[in-house]
Amino acid sequence: MNLQMDTTLGQTFSNKSQIARVRTEDWAGRELFCAACASPSLTQSPNNAKAIDFVCPQCQAEYQLKSAAKWNENRIVDAGYDAMMDKIQKDETPHLLVLSYSPKWEVENLTLVPRFFFSASSVQKRNPLALTARRAGWVGCNILLSAIATDGKLSVIQKGIAQSAAQVRAQYEKVKPLAKVSVDLRGWALDVFACIRRLGKTDFVLADVYTFENYLAQLHPENNNVQPKIRQQLQVLRNAGLVQFLSPGRYRLIG
Ligand SMILES: [Zn+2]
Q1: What is the Å distance from ligand 1's center to 45 Cα?
Q2: The pTM is what?
Q3: Is there a contact between 93 and 118 (Cβ–Cβ < 8 Å)?
């Protein structure tokens, strides 16, 4: 993978973000492959209205590309809050590609968040725009990368070193079972899964997961029966092939 962008592009723009958009999209159009199938390339999508930048010509997977010289590791600014929540509810979010580049326009980091890792807990409502703004009252959102399980942040390029397509697809295959979990259950399942990952061990017991009870209650204020919900989600994760039940109250992470 060639990490250098074409710096002859966008020279007529004075706005840095326009230059970045032209160069990163051109680079992605040349270098990106599909993580969800064997396609060696992605096609640039003209459908900007849906915030979809690339589509896989083989499996039709949709990708959104976000680029910046530097990202806040915890959250990135996205579009409208209501539109994002609606997309999550309809299971229509595209895969997210988060790209950062060096002052010399080389791609430094590229992270892929598979579409099925987005839940209400990973979207933060921003304050409405001031009344003096052109779109007064409009409410945007942040995507909370910090709230997404590490399994949901697939490394494509890290500190200037690219993974092979095979490595990226292997990471994707490992978490793909989550796509089968229904949207209604997915939010909880992802939150419980993120907590289990935070334990930092392969084998764990129910009491380990219960230590996140208060945290999970904050994420889901509508539910005051968190312990039964945790047990239910462990079954969801088991059915998705991500957790193995060893014996009553004892579990193992798979993969
Ligand atoms: Zn594909």
Answers
A1: 14
A2: 0.88
A3: yes
- Would you say residue 66 lies in a domain? yes
Full residue range of the structural domain in which residue 70 is found = 16-74+93-117+144-178
The pLDDT tens digits of the residues spanning 106-164 come to 999 999 999 999 988 899 999 998 888 888 888 999 999 988 888 899 999 999 999 99
Residue 97 CA to ligand 1 center (angstroms) comes to 14
Task: With respect to residue 218, please indicate whether it lies within any of the assigned structural domains.
Answer: yes
If 0-12 CB within 10 Å is exposed, 13-18 middle and 19+ buried, where does residue 112 land?
Answer: buried
Q: Note the residue count of the chain.
A: 255
d(CA 231, CA 248): 11
CA of 38 to the centre of ligand 1 (A): 6
What residues pack around ion ligand 1 (CB closer than 5 A)? 34, 36-37, 39, 56, 58-59, 61
- Say if residue 151 is in the same domain as residue 191: no
b/e per residue, 10-26, with b = 16+ CB within 10 A? beeeeeeeebbbbbbbb
Q: Residue 234 is part of a domain; what is its CATH number?
A: 1.10.10.10
